[in-house]
Design goal:
The protein starts with 14 loop residues before the first helix and ends with a helix. It is elongated. Helix 2 crosses helix 3 and helix 3 packs across helix 12. Helices cover 63% and strands 4% of the residues. A hairpin with a 4-residue loop joins strand 2 and strand 3. It folds into 2 domains: 316 residues, no CATH class; 32 residues. By secondary structure, it is mainly alpha-helical. It has a 3-stranded antiparallel β-sheet. The chain binds iron/sulfur cluster (2 copies). One iron/sulfur cluster (SF4) binds next to helix 13.
Length: 380
């Protein structure tokens, strides 16, 4: 067999830039956490401590509320004002997935960064990348879709439109960020054990949480299928060295595919960086007539630009900080322990009924008010 002439890949890798972006985003999240801590201090002292504004970025840590807001926006065009920043962060992440696949997971997500670092540590420890056998890997990967399915079913099929709005308006949703803070500040022993187990499992199996359990990742994986940008392998110039497959953190058999169509691909570009042959493994915009190369630089700039443009759109249109006053926060904070949310199908149905009754009551009161106004103006 004639030996292939190898045209060496001289393009510089972009993993360094990806890591810098991941670190910057993690620092931003920590900064948001610190600001939120000072806001909580203000509430805990009953308003005695200096007022510190709630950082709107904290909304990004409320994916369920953001998903509900997203659904409300899709069905009614309303931008709900309880956590508007969450909605725009959600828009940004979904758009990133549609353009560059599940790129949020490998470029921005702080949990993704932590999983990567723990996975690297595990590989150094065991001197190899461990992988679960297929008979375990496939069913476990479906767990995140089951969780996502339950959330989507609850929001879209179990809740009426009225109940959805009532939930978003509810005091529970208004202060769900504060509730989340106390979940972690007063973390239960069971939750700690679960986190510790996940941490240890991630040492053995890279990205354990992301691969098997994260419902957010599952949703982005579905959107990523729509992305026209896919990793493509030139089967003619490929020398079957398998370096791409070995480098892939998502265990995708890159060296066997012509086009990577996978809900697990995070556009991390590890495979492209390690490929030793020029123009063999590339990210390409796939169109029915022609494929266009997407340079590595374009991925770095594109991912950042989408995130900044979408979140910037939220800020410049006045849909970033919610309009709750310090007094309203103090009011809800005092009553926080009495606020809950419906759990289970029966409670959800009850919540639907309550939302309908409240709407009817409002209408009756409005009618009464209108009649009174008419009477008063008629009497004059
Ligand atoms: S296929 Fe390539 S870009 Fe996709 S996850 Fe694997 S290494 Fe990253
Ligand atoms: S890294 Fe993958 S695509 Fe590149 S030459 Fe080796 S097997 Fe082929």
């Amino acid at each position: 067999m004639a030996k292939k002439i190898i045209n060496r890949n001289k393009e510089k890798g972009i993993q360094k830039y990806r890591f810098i972006i991941q670190i910057l985003f993690a620092v931003l999240c920590i900064w948001i956490g610190v600001e939120f801590y000072f806001f909580i201090q203000f509430l805990e002292t009953g308003g005695a401590a200096a007022y510190s504004t709630r950082p709107p970025g904290v909304d990004g840590f409320l994916p369920i509320s953001s998903f509900m807001s997203f659904y409300l926006f899709l069905t009614t065009g309303i931008i709900h004002q309880a956590h508007p920043a969450g909605l725009f962060i959600f828009f940004a992440i979904v758009l990133m997935s549609i353009v560059f696949g599940k790129s949020f997971c490998s470029w921005l997500c702080p949990v993704g960064l932590l999983s990567e670092l723990v996975g690297d540590f595990g590989e150094k420890l065991f001197k190899r990348r461990l992988k679960l056998p297929k008979f375990l890997d496939y069913p476990l990967r479906s767990l995140k879709y089951l969780m996502l399915g339950f959330l989507v079913y609850s929001v879209i099929f179990l809740m009426t439109d009225l109940a959805l709005e009532a939930f978003l308006d509810s005091p529970y949703n208004l202060i769900s960020d504060i509730k989340m803070y106390y979940f972690f500040a007063n973390i239960s022993r069971t939750s700690l054990i679960v986190i510790a187990v996940l941490f240890v499992l991630s040492i053995f199996i890279r990205n354990f949480w992301c691969r098997f359990l994260c419902p957010y990742g599952a949703l982005l994986g579905i959107f990523s299928i729509l992305s026209p940008n896919k990793i493509k392998r030139d089967t003619v110039s490929c020398i079957d060295c398998e370096l791409c497959t070995k480098a892939c953190p998502s265990f995708i058999k890159v060296d066997k595919a012509k086009t990577i169509i996978s809900d697990e691909c995070t556009s991390c570009m590890n495979c492209v960086d390690v490929c030793p042959v020029a123009d063999t493994l590339e990210l390409k915009t796939v169109t029915p007539s022609k494929n266009f190369k997407v340079t590595k630089k374009a991925v770095v700039i594109g991912v950042m630009a989408i995130f900044m443009l979408m979140t910037g759109a939220g800020m410049f249109t006045g849909n970033w900080q919610n309009n709750l006053t310090a007094e309203e926060y103090l009011f809800h904070y005092e009553r926080m322990n009495s606020y809950g949310h419906p759990t289970g199908t029966a409670a959800m149905k009850e919540f639907n009924k309550k939302a309908l009754m409240e709407k009817k009551l409002k209408e009756i009161n409005q009618k009464k008010l209108n009649l009174d106004l008419q009477k008063n103006s008629g009497g004059k």
